[in-house]
Amino acid sequence: MDRKENITPNTLEIQKNDEIEGTFCHELFENSFFNEKLCQELLVELPNINKTASSTRIIKWIISNVDTCFTSHHDDNDLYQIKNYSKKIEDKWKEYRQILEKYT
User: Fold this and answer.
1) Were 13 and a residue from 9, 23, 73, 81 both cysteine, which residue would form a disulfide, CB within 3.0 to 4.6 Å?
2) Would you give the distance in Å from CA 3 to the centre of its chain?
3) For 17, left (φ over 0), alpha (ψ -120 to 50), or beta?
4) What does the alpha-carbon distance between residue 26 and residue 6 come to, in Å, rounded to a whole number?
5) CA nearest neighbour of 72 among 90, 57, 54
């Protein structure tokens, strides 16, 4: 009897594919909307994800790209704008970033 391995992508792998609708990364990278609820859902899942070289790379990728979104938003020469930007959201991201960094 063949044993099928569970090949369902974990939360981080799904985030890495920013074309998947309904993810934090898709909302921010493709729709220019910082969805705080989706970010919080991602953070809640982190303790359930095995720490591997791959998960570390993906977390670093998420941090880097979200940081780039904020940098681009503040760059007058860049057309990218976070539609729901506020100082409060940026401050929240700084808190969330620290949580993510603990898993790298």
Assistant:
1) 9
2) 33
3) beta
4) 24
5) 90
pLDDT in tens, 20-61: 899 999 999 999 999 999 999 999 999 999 899 999 999 999
The conformation of residue 27, written as its DSSP 8-state character, comes to I
| Token duo for residue 95 | 């808190």
Sign of CA dihedral 100, 101, 103, 104: positive
Structure tokens at 5: 């391995």
Distance CA 44, CA 87 (A): 23
Query: Looking at the predicted structure, is the pLDDT value of residue 7 above 70?
Result: no
Q: Where does residue 51 fall: left (phi above 0), alpha (psi -120 to 50 degrees), or beta otherwise?
A: beta
Q: What letter would DSSP give residue 49? A: S
